[in-house]
Amino acid sequence: MTITDRLFNRLVLGAVVIGFLALLAAGGLIGWSIQRNQDYNQAVDHTYQVQGAVYQYRVLAERAEAARRGYLLKPDDRYRQVFVETADDLPPAFDRLVDLTRDNPHQQARLDRLRPLAAMQSALMRQSADMVRRGRQISAVGMFRNDNNLATMESMRTLLFDIGEEESRLLKERAARQERGVSFLKWSLGLTLLLLLAVAGGSVFVIFQYTRDLTRSRRDLFKLNASLESAVEDRTVDLRRANDEIQRFAYIVSHDLRSPLVNIMGFTSELEAASIPLQDLVTRAEAEAPGILTDEAREAVRTDLPEAAGFIRASTQKMDRLINAILRLSRDGRRVLAPELLDMHGLVAGIAASLKHRTDELGASITVEALPDLVSDRVAMEQILSNLIENATKYLQPGRPGEITVRGRMDGIRAIYEVQDNGRGIDPKDHDRIFDLFRRSGVQDQPGEGIGLAHVRALAYRLGGVISCDSELDQGATFRLSLPAVLLPERASE
Amino acid sequence: MTHPVTIVMIEDDEGHARLIEKNIRRAGINNQIRHFLDGTSALAFLESAADGPSLNGPALILLDLNLPDMSGTDILVRIKREEGPLKRTPVVVLTTTDDKVEIQRCYDLGCNVYITKPVNYEAFAQAIRQLGLFLSVIQVPDIDGAA
Does one domain contain both A346 and A463? Predict the structure, then answer.
């Protein structure tokens, strides 16, 4: 994944998170706005109540006055009854008004001015009604004429009107506020709806995008896999062809190299054979005619000729062994592998048994632990493991009884085998070199041409495996062989 | 045996030829040995030379497989073909190749003996001398149509 991809993903994630946060905020806003609207509604309702109370008080006051006047004109007990009842209702109505407008100091001030007027009016009314009840109707009427009843009533009316006006103004204001609240709520709802649509749309878009990308990359992967397979196939064919070529080359070269060797060996032997009569001649000359014999001639026949022949012979023999090794490698490389189920423990135990004579002589022991079985080529596996185990017995540390352990385990679809010894070890700088043909490491006190491990590696490669070495000088060595647990049969390439 | 058997050696390496001849002689075989360095001249001699085996008595062929102008097996096929005059002539393949497939092929094509030249000269000399002893005792058929 590239940096820009990661950045884009973060941006998308961030946008979605912000969208959801905004939605949450919008929800909160709507809740708050509904709450506020309820408050507004209550305020409006309260105003209506106040107006109602003002109206009720005014009606009661007018009615009481009207009832008193009726009683003054006609002292009927029914008028008095109405008056008394109405006058009794006045104080609670006033108190209610005070209660309702306790939050409004202006209204309270007005009510404070109204209170003495109402008390005075009430006292006057009760006094005149009382006088009438006691039969002093004339003096009561006289008092009515003189008292300032009309002005008081007027003042009360004005005050009550003002209170009503104030409440009307408040009502208008509150109604406007309520309307604004409702419209705000509407707007917030609309906005939230838009936001919701945006977030949902964004999410759907992102999911769609991702799904499409996923599908596309899966398809690409599939295609890539298919092409990879065919690429591997092609490469395998190429490799096999190159390998065949090398094998053929090694085969032809080694055979053609052999022909001159036959001559070198043959004529060297002829030379040696020819030098025998010469030596006899020198011996005879020494005895019979020492004068004709020079030191150089004697030296040449007795020393130089046999020495030269000996070196030629030794080198030629070595060359023959090397050529044979190459031939063997090439022959093994061309052998068709026959995978079969191998009882690895039995196979290794067999190798150990075949080396028993040697290990007994050396005082070494071979321990074979539990080994996973595998499907592979028997001959190749035998050659690999016997080479490794033989090497382990060959390069022991003098003075330390050899302990060789063969162990194995499964690692996924591969089987791992290890041949561990406590021998002289291999310098880490030589770990690659020892697998090269004709290359050896350490003290050269054992016979060998540096072929075994090259052979082992070539075989391991052929079996689809790898071999590695783990060792320090004087610390023993562990050769680790990793092979496919199941070797597929080769297709006939020729 | 009215005619002495001619040994026809087809060997491109003069050194090998010399060593083979020496060792055959050392085995006490004194038959005539005709040496050819390439397949063409060898076939010419075998099939049409006036003193060649086709017209002139029995022969035994020592054949190397690696020749400059043709493969030894081609010569083998030519000699052993059904209508050829030399089909019963014994052929000893004497070569450096010890490949199993090659050996099988040579016997399939009718070679009578297959010998690998050992690089070790003692073994080589031994093999040739034994071949010489073998040559001294085997019966070689007369060529049909030859005098």
Answer: yes
Q: What is the pLDDT of residues A120-167, one digit of tens each?
A: 888 888 888 888 888 888 888 888 887 777 788 888 888 888 888 888
Full-model pTM = 0.52
Nearest chain B CA: its distance from A318 CA (Å): 11
Question: What is the ipTM score, two decimals?
Answer: 0.76
Let me know if residue A11 belongs to a domain: yes
Nearest to B97 among A255, A267, A317 (CB): A255
Residue A92 has pLDDT above 70, yes or no: yes
- Domains of chain B: residue spans and CATH: 6-137 (3.40.50.2300)
Phi and psi angles of residue A245, each rounded to the nearest 5 degrees, phi first: -60, -45
Structural domain harbouring A23: 5-193
Mean pLDDT by 10 residues, chain B (147 residues): 76 89 87 89 84 75 86 89 84 84 90 85 84 79 57
For residue B101, give the chain A residue with the closest CA. A331
Q: If you measure CA to CA, which chain A residue comes closest to B12?
A: A259
Whether A211 maps to a domain, the answer reads no
C-beta atoms of B120 and A268 within 8 A: no
Contacts of A262 in chain B (CB under 8 A): 13, 15-16, 19, 96, 117-119, 121, 124
